[in-house]
TrEMBL record:
Protein name stated in the entry: ABC transporter related protein
GO molecular function terms noted in the UniProt entry: ATP binding; ATP hydrolysis activity; ATPase-coupled transmembrane transporter activity
Pfam families per record: ABC_tran
Annotated source species: Thermogladius calderae (strain DSM 22663 / VKM B-2946 / 1633)
Keyword list, A-Z: ATP-binding, Cell membrane, Membrane, Nucleotide-binding, Translocase, Transport
PROSITE patterns xref list: ABC_TRANSPORTER_1, ABC_TRANSPORTER_2
Membrane topology reported for the UniProt record: Peripheral membrane protein
Recorded GO CC terms: ATP-binding cassette (ABC) transporter complex
Length: 237
């Protein structure tokens, strides 16, 4: 079981501009939803856990290792991170190559079933950059989740998806949770809070530069609005 541990960790890109300060937190396997206003540091936090940037101070550990100090391949075997902008990670000429890339890099068999569920057959020989936004989102999720790592960091995984896409991704997340994955999902749309039952909701307080931790069912509209996060009643008004 893979814990994510923050030890007095300060998250951000620049020491002169820390985004989230002094985080002390243990995330056990389960589903953790990450919320916060624009520019509060949701992506920065995910990138820190994935070792793409280092904490400005303190430590972040995944399965006992500090990801930013380790070789990329070792970290990629443990942590899968998907991008808010799905086109950002595309480097291969076809969807098939894109989905297989991480398996070649890790020399792993992976879980092709998850890729088949996400990516319709007619897309497999297409150029990833020719895909629609929703198709690209499916491919970008498949190209990471196919590796079946113990930690999934999903930045806006429901963006651009239709009913079928949201159903499939939420099922995969639900199953991942049951299979003991440690899953952190960054979200904007509060309705997706309901899609999968979460174990905790982490909200970045942009003014105090702190990370506030709530239980899954505790976050109502007034809590969201207190932190400048889009609420359900704001959308439905
Ligand atoms: N490489 C970088 N160097 C310096 N600052 C950066 C860098 N990348 C992002 N930032 C800034 O860091 C802040 C946090 O960015 P981040 O992308 O983590 O926010 P976010 O909470 O994911 O935002 P959003 O809700 O808009 O997706 C923003 O003000 C952003 O402009």
């Amino acid at each position: 079981m893979t814990d994510i541990v923050f030890e007095k960790a300060t998250i951000g890109y620049l020491r002169t501009k820390p985004l989230i300060v002094d985080v002390d937190l243990v995330l056990k396997p389960g589903l953790h939803i990450l919320l916060g206003p624009n520019g509060s540091g949701k992506s920065a936090l995910l990138k820190t856990v994935a070792g793409l940037i280092s904490p400005l101070y303190g430590r972040v550990l995944v399965d006992g290792i500090e990801p930013y100090k380790e070789r990329r391949r070792k970290v990629a075997a443990v942590v899968g991170i998907t991008w808010q902008d799905p086109y950002y990670g595309f480097v291969e000429p076809t969807v098939r190559d894109e989905v297989n890339l991480i398996l070649r890099q890790l020399r792993a068999q992976g879980n092709m079933e998850v890729a088949d569920r996400l990516v319709p057959q007619q897309l497999w020989d297409r150029d990833p950059f020719s895909l629609s936004g929703g198709e690209a989102k499916r491919v970008s999720l498949a190209s990471v989740l196919v590796a079946d790592q113990p930690v999934w960091l999903l930045d806006e995984p429901f963006d651009n998806l239709d009913l079928d896409g949201v159903r499939r991704v939420s099922e995969i997340v639900r199953e991942g949770k049951q299979r003991g994955k440690n899953i952190v999902v960054a979200l904007h749309n509060p309705f997706y809070l309901e899609v999968v039952e979460s174990d905790s909701v982490l909200i970045i307080d942009k003014d105090r530069r702190s990370l506030e931790v709530f239980k899954g069912g505790e976050v109502d509209d007034s809590v969201l609005e207190r932190y400048g996060v889009l609420s359900r009643r704001m959308i439905c008004r």
